[in-house]
Amino acid sequence: MGPRASEDEISVVTDGRRLGSGLSLRAVLPNAITAAALCSGLTGIRFAIIGDWERCVFAIILAGMLDGIDGRIARLLKAQSRFGAELDSLADSLSFGMAPALVLFLWSLQDLPRFGWFASLAFAICCALRLARFNAQIDMDEQPHKSAGFLTGVPAPIGAGLAFLPMYLWIASGEPIFREPIIVAVWVAVMAFLMISNLATLSWTSIRPRRSIRLEAIAVAGLVFASLLTEPWWTLAVLSIIYLLLMPYGVYSYAKVRRQRNAASASEIS
């Protein structure tokens, strides 16, 4: 979720050049990408204020894409730092918590007095709580989900994308039912709960296609990209639904791994 590192890595000089206090020159690129993700997420709010819903959602999706690469670039450049970790958390909270909450409120929830605003608040707060939990556990050795290749709850960028599912369907079909405030409020509340839940969810590291189907997986990825270019809203809706359908599989897979670990521990003790 960004350029994360332990506290003592800040004082390590990697290239002999620093900007300010403790930030190496090579750390500029990943942190600049994080800042760009933050600006993209906040620009989504601007588009929402003027009612440009398509550009609004695309801006927040772009923020999610940038968030997905800043940490990888930081690790590639060996530029992880505590500064980057804190900036990344702040950017995630704004881009995937506050921005979607305000966008959905302006789009639909403002027509539901009190409860619509509470649903938006719940989403923003749960996103912040999830990120705070992640930061609190980052240096902990005992993380059962992470050690097994799973995540705890729905990640903030994915949670934001799932929260927009009613909007995807509304833009794609034009049906007013998808903009119904009560339906949107319930949906947003459920997505907020999933972000702070203790459910084991699949991560990219746990998805390993068998060698026999890797060419097919590449072909499917190409088709998905083409679908995003031609029918972006239906494609985003389908991808969101597929992710939700895979959540029970993630819970089942983690339970299976946990049983295997318990059996191995019991055999070692005996």
Automatic annotation (TrEMBL):
GO cellular component, one term: membrane
Coiled-coil annotated residue ranges, if any: none
Gene Ontology molecular function, alphabetical: phosphotransferase activity, for other substituted phosphate groups
Keywords linked to the UniProt accession: Lipid biosynthesis, Lipid metabolism, Membrane, Phospholipid biosynthesis, Phospholipid metabolism, Transferase, Transmembrane, Transmembrane helix
Keyword Manganese on entry: no
Swiss-Prot/TrEMBL GO biological process terms: phospholipid biosynthetic process
Entry's localization field: Membrane
Topological type in the membrane: Multi-pass membrane protein
Boundaries of every CDP-alcohol phosphatidyltransferase C-terminal domain copy: 214-248
InterPro entries according to UniProt: CDP-alcohol_PTase-I, CDP-OH_P_trans, CDP-OH_P_trans_C, CDP-OH_PTrfase_TM_dom, CDP_ALCOHOL_P_TRANSF_CS
Regions that span the bilayer: 27-51, 57-77, 89-109, 115-136, 148-170, 182-201, 236-255
Keyword Lipid metabolism set for record: yes
Predominant localisation class: membrane
PANTHER family per UniProt: CDP-DIACYLGLYCEROL--GLYCEROL-3-PHOSPHATE 3-PHOSPHATIDYLTRANSFERASE-RELATED, CDP-DIACYLGLYCEROL--SERINE O-PHOSPHATIDYLTRANSFERASE
UniProt family annotation: Belongs to the CDP-alcohol phosphatidyltransferase class-I family.
Name listed for the protein in its UniProt record: Phosphatidylcholine/phosphatidylserine synthase
